[in-house]
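Archive entry. Fields below.
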Amino acid sequence: MGEASAPPTGNLWYRIDHALRPWRRANPMARWLVIIGLLITGLFAFLALFPNLVAPYGESQYQYVVGGTEDPEDLDVRCGTEAECEQVPRRIEPSKGFPFGTTAARFDVFSRVVHGARVAFSIVLLSTALAMGIGVPLGLFSGYRGGKLDRVLVTLMDAVYVIPPLLLAIIVAFVLQAYFDPGLASAAVAVGVVYVPQYYRVIRNHTLSVKEEPFVEAARSMGAKPRTIITRYVFFNVVQSVPVIFTLNAADAVLTLAGLGFLGYGVPFPRAEWGLDVSQALSDVVSGFWWTAFFPGLATMLLVAGLTLVGEGLNDIVNPLLRVRGFRGRVARRALPAASGAAASEPGPAPSEGTDTSTPGGIR
Amino acid sequence: MVATRARSGSLRAYVLGRLAFAPVFLFLLLTLLFLLLRVMPGDPVAAALGDRVSAEQLDARREAAGINDPILVQYGRYMGGVLQGDLGTPVTDPRSVSRIVIDRFPATFELTMFAMLLAVGIGVLAGAVGARFRDGPLDVGGRLFAILIYAAPVFWLGILAQLLFANRWGLLPTGNRMSARISYEAPTGFYLLDGFLTRDWTFLWTAFQHLLMPGLTLGLVISGVFIRMVRVNMLQTLRSDYVEAAHARGIGGRRVLFRHAFKNALVPVVTIMGLQFALLLGGAILTETTFSWPGLGTALVGFINRRDYVAVQGIVTFFAIMVVSVSLLIDIINGLLDPRVRY
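PREDICTED_STRUCTURE:
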């Protein structure tokens, strides 16, 4: 490896090289996990972006034009009751034309699965944006300010955190339906609320340790305002832990959404949501129609596994404690970046911030 | 639960601190839940009963449920009720919530306990083996299994199990806790225990058959968490100074693994176990729904579907109490096991 002999200059190549160093030093298995995870996630991201390129039918389409499939979007409109339209056959096995079979309600399972990727991604992105948007600023503020307010916020967040995630999502969805019609937005809020405490905790703990650093001290002694210190000095040091939490939480969010959908409190029916589709298939089990439940569930599992692989692999790479063995391992530990230091400095029983798994997992 | 920390490192101060903090925390949590569930537009009685009863009846029910009182009075009554073990009376069910909890809790507990034991067994075994033969085929296989099984939605695995074991092979019942054809006595409500107590072996066997599929499904899914936890903790422990010191003193590899590393690696697992247990007591909702398991989860789903706010609040309150109690217990156990925690 030529990394040691790289010129210590500020040129771009050196910087990239330096940034990729943990990646190259990482265990080959960790690298493979990330690559496989990225491939799976990428595949679903593609489906989410361009569902109509892949799916032969629309999201909730049960009729099609005989002999032509031009634009799947407006087929529903053109069909109506006209003679040239044919219905998707009811409950047929996976076969040519309907690779994943069809449901009792005459939907093509394959198309539903493909469109479901879009719903899953939208919810994950929306809910994470919400969780980050609340959790990160609150964590920064609370960690930097300290004192009574910090105490209160920590306790409040802990109170939210101890509620089982799915239960919390159900309660929020239940309350929201009194105000709004259920839809993408309310499902995203229900899922997002669950993850606010996790962002808050990690950011707050990290801020606590960063604010003691000499450079923050220096900025303070030079008379920088707290606002400047937080936004210019603390933020960029703290924000590095967000991507890892994000990938791990995203996996969890997909499962929470599927759980909500399965119980019927998630995205409402005409939308293709995997959990909802599995719940629609519950009655098929008795008659042995396996495909209506199998494929949406499989898609959920694959996407969650893909996101988990990325998250775990990143965690392994960013947090080198477990990376190198023997002597090199000890060196690496001494030179450990603050990533795991923040978690370790919180001695209370807060195991969710442990090195590897930050999965709360109470959604079963 | 973090917040309070005992000043000195003594065990007694630590335990007392926790004991004092738990009720405060619970109070806060319940207030939060009350605010979330009670401060809603419309009134819960009308939402639950709708047009099925006359206006006078609605008024009477409202009066009985105390919906007409100011919100602070309701809050006071709710907290007072919780202190006396009264979780309220549902709008759509003549039984009190406490009664429903007593009726349904054994089913949830039995399922959770079974799944938990299975998951811990698999997790400790696979995790320890994975850490010992790091990056070998067993480790890679174990990790992949852990990730995939954890990624699988539990209801989906349950449906697949139903398709195979109940539908195709007819080996196990599809759902529920007991077959309708069997008459039985269940003094405690924990069917496996009752089977032993009454020496009714057919009953015990049927109960076990019914428990097997939901228990296995849930247990397998949560075993993923344990495999990962145990593996990581083992790896960290194997790298620690005292293990290295043990090796240096010439103690054999196997002995170090079991006597020195294993026990310490399991300390965090206790925490995870407790947390998972607390979560499952309120969170086995999906498994229960999939297998029509008559536990608290299905009860909660039923009340939510009937929009019975009062009952939902009561059951959620029970969950909150359970979660806080179990966390308190874990904190204390951790304090006993690991002196570092006390500071």
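CURATOR_NOTE: Residues 201-238 of chain B form the longest helix (38 residues).
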